[in-house]
Amino acid sequence: MNDVKARLQEELRDAGWHSRGCLPHFDGGEISQTVTFRLADSLPLTVVERWKREREKASPREMDSVLRRRIEYYLDQGYGQ
To answer: b or e along 20-53 (b: 16 or more beta carbons within 10 Å of the residue's beta carbon)?
Structure first.
């Protein structure tokens, strides 16, 4: 790990962020936080597979933001059981 990365991680830790290698967490004391859970069928596998195929054809940077917006829009429609 280089010095810049080490300093950045130290600054994030000092600000309340930490990670065990998966998702980063924020310990904000009195700050309210929200967690959203979704059921597996709220985003069908066929849709995910189609989007993955489309992603392979586009540039990663371009498709990342498009994919995030698509996922959120699709999930907000309330499909599934």
So the answer is: eeeeeeeeeeeeeeeeeeeeeeebeeeeeeebee
Give me the residue spans of the domains in the chain. 1-32, 36-81
* Three-class SS state of 69: helix
Residue-level pLDDT, tens digit, the chain, 81 residues: 588 888 888 888 888 887 777 777 787 778 777 777 777 788 888 888 888 888 788 777 777 778 878 888 888 888 877
For the entire predicted model, the pTM comes to 0.46
